[in-house]
Amino acid sequence: MLYAILCYNDEAAVEACSKDEIDAILKKRAAVTQELAAKGKLGPVARLMPTTAATTIRSREPFVIDGPFAETKEQLLGFYIVDCASLEEVIDVARRMKEGEAGSFEIRPLRLFEAGSIAAS
Amino acid sequence: MAWIDRAVRAARPQVMGALLRYFRDLDRAEEAFQEACLRALKHWPQNGPPRDPASWLIFVGRNVGIDDVRRRRGEERLPPEETVSDLEDAETRLVEEIDGGHYRDDVLRLLFVCCHPDLPATQQIALALRIVSGLSVREIANAFLVSEAAMEQRITRAKRRIADADVPFETPGAAERAERLGTVAAMIYLLFNEGYSASGGTAHIRVPLCEEAIRLARLLLRLFPGEPEIMGLAALLLLQHSRAAARLDAEGAIVLLEDQNRDLWDRDMIAEALALLEKALRHGRPGPYQVQAAIAGVHARAPRFADTDWAEIDRLYAVLERLQPSPVVTLNRAVAVAKLRGPEAGLAMLDPLAPRLANYFHFFGVKGALLQQLGRAGEARAAFDRAIALARTPAEAAHIRLHLDRLQDS
Question: Could you tell me if residue A80 is inside a domain?
Fold first, then answer.
């Protein structure tokens, strides 16, 4: 079974952390992920930019809006990592992927990307 | 207790905004906030963090404040919150209430009150740092190089002025909200500038002020995620601050853009800023912050100084001149023109600016540098001498002296 561990926190509280504090947290987590990686059990690792950098695509108008998807009635269900040259291009990709579906796609530029070591099944 | 500290700091603007709405008085809101924080320090370590720290602090702060008012009137006090059995229920109701809508306008009002147009810019910034950011009077006094007593007085005076001014507490209409947003954005921009290029004292860059400005810009952006100018403002501050580590050398001397070690630029900040900028530009509603961010973005994208796209920078400054005509903007454009078409062309743009920039340090710095490139040493020296006289920090003066030394050598 594969699991996604999605890290939620209050963005404003994270911004109140100093760079040293953030580095310490990442270092502490790395100790765990390195163990997993050695066993071939680590997938892609991504740290998202703040929600302020997000763009949301909805089914109803306006189709593309700024900001994160914030309605509490829907939850994050999965994520794709795509390599696109521009926001225009990724919006186009997301629109095509989303065609005919309800729900929302949120586009978030990646801050960090590590491919990991798990083979796709 | 670092987590309590962080939670309280993060919740502060929202809590203060709500308490200001209840009490309509900055001092009373502040007192209620302090008391709520003291209670948090007592309760949270025992009971664990509340589900929503902001709501907890608003709830407790409001009760403390009401209690205080009753006591002053000689009425019976409310029961202490330990005995209120439905604190959890009340908290839940409050969360729903906040989700319902006041939150955004509360925080905007709080920020807006701090930068009320009746206040001079220095008081606006001091008040915002005290009320919204929660910096101590001593911290603010240190940042502005005045005594603690003088800063205390400045803040007290600002509060009194606000109490006298008529700040409406109704939910603002669309036009008024846009106006408030613009005023608040300008205050954040000024706060950043004060940190980016200090107007006095020995430290040329004051990182904490820049960081606080970025924090406030992000706060504003979370409240108004669809405003391209707020995206532009946040992008601009991130781009300018991304170079902080490269802007001064080990001795604290200024390192010009062309000589900076670009490996020291903060790539995370640049990437975030460029993402914000790209998003902003899709709106097709350009504004001064977006254009300034776009100019900073051209520099951020150039791997080396020699790769800088000066033609693009010239174009962007032309747009900025149209949106926000100012001799300082034209001066900056002259630098781009000099890179593009030679120092003569740049210099020609400076002459008409001279009367309006007669007391502007950077005008004489740029003029001296262009004259120097043209081999007009005598005139260059005169311009540099004037720049030194106008320098606001030792680093600025030292930087110009370096130019003078080079003139001497050549």
Answer: yes
The residue assigned the tokens 């005290």 is B130
Which tens digits make up the pLDDT trace of B72-112? 777 666 655 554 444 555 555 555 555 446 778 888 889 98
CATH number of the CATH domain containing A103: 3.30.70
From chain B, the residues in CB contact with A49 under 8 A are 271-272, 275
Nearest CB to B225 within list A52, A87, A88: A52
What is the Cα–Cα distance from B18 to B14, expressed in whole angstroms? 6
Number of domains in chain A: 1
From A16, A21, A55, residue closest to B10, measured CB to CB: A16
pTM, two decimals, is 0.85
